[in-house]
Structures are given as C-alpha cells and as structure tokens.
C-alpha cells in the first residue's frame, strides 16, 4: 500500500513538473480593454467601434439620462450652458465589472473647445487608480489637443498613453496610432 502511494505521488509530482515546463515564462494575463465614448452625431461612435474592432475591447456608450437636442444649434446651446454652469449631466447606466478593465479608452467630440461635461460626470464616477487611460476625440477643425488634455486632466490617478484625434468620423491613422502606443502588434 505504501509503495502504491509513493508511486502515485511520484507520478503527480512528475506531471506537475512537466506542465510547469510547458507554461510560457513571464506570460502576462490578457489586458481587458474598455472603449467608453460619448457620441452625439455618430462620429465618435464610428471611431470607437473601429478601435473596438481592432483591439477586441468592450464598447460602452456614455448616454445622458436626458438626451441632447437632435438639432445642431439647440444642442450647442445646451452644451454651452452646461459648460458655463460646470454641470454634471446624469448618465443612464454604469460600466459593469469596472474592476476587470486595465485599459480604458475615453472618447468624445470636441464641444466648446473641450470635452463635453458628461465626460466629467463619467470620469468622476469611477476609480482610475492603476488603470491606463487613452483619450480620443472627434473634431471638425480645432481644439483636438485641448480635448485630449482635458481627458488626461480628469483622470489623474491613471497612467496615460498618447491620444488620438479624428476629423469627423475618419478612421485613417487609427491602426498606426494603436501600433505606436503598443495596443496592436
């Protein structure tokens, strides 16, 4: 009986050693990626979907509880009033299992020379400690850099990678940017 037990123990130890030798050295667990975005006219959504398709990340649409006007001029008036009031528009839903994500892309259009106030609401609702934030935005002609910088400013506890600005919904250059910041091989 004792011999059988020793033989069984030897087989188990040999198996464990063989399996350990087959395991890759320094293998890192796969990073979980979230692409959180606010989009009014669809441009930022288009860019976010492209990023998700390339990275395999999970999309999360930041939606206001009270929708913005669908017409351009009334929407800009609401956006301007929110900025002047330093408002925090309520968001419909929260990210499920926030803690599972290591890398968070945060995207939005440029509104009144910066990120819309709903981005403040989003960033204030989560703990970014230990996360990596990658900002992106869509814009018509200017204030890309200011908007990307605002997203970084709103997430001081996170590490940050270089952001990206897309003119309207143009996805040209996204794949190269993702390679540059080592989010793609």
UniProtKB/TrEMBL annotation:
It comes from the Bacteria. Residues 1-20 form the signal peptide. Pfam families: Flavodoxin_4. InterPro entries: Flavodoxin/NO_synth (IPR008254), Flavoprotein-like_sf (IPR029039). The keyword NAD does not apply. Gene3D superfamilies: 3.40.50.360. Residues 32-180 form the Flavodoxin-like domain. GO terms for molecular function: FMN binding. Keywords: Signal. This is Flavodoxin. It comes from Parabacteroides chinchillae.
């Amino acid at each position: 009986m004792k011999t059988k037990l020793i033989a069984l123990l030897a087989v188990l130890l040999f198996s464990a050693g063989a399996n350990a030798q087959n395991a890759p050295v320094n293998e890192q667990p796969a990073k979980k990626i979230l692409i959180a975005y606010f989009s009014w006219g669809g441009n930022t959504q288009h860019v976010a979907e492209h990023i998700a398709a390339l990275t395999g990340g999970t999309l999360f649409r930041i939606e206001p509880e009270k929708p913005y006007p669908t017409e351009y001029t009334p929407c800009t008036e609401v956006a301007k009033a929110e900025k002047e009031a330093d408002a925090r528009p309520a968001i419909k839903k929260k990210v499920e299992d926030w803690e599972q994500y290591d890398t968070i892309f945060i995207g939005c259009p440029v509104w009144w020379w910066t990120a819309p106030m709903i981005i403040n609401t989003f960033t204030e609702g989560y703990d970014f400690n230990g996360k990596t934030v990658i900002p992106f935005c869509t814009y018509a002609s200017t204030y890309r850099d200011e908007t990307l910088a605002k997203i970084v400013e709103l997430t001081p506890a996170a590490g940050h990678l270089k952001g990206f600005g897309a003119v309207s919904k143009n996805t040209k250059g996204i794949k190269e940017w993702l390679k540059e910041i080592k989010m793609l091989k």
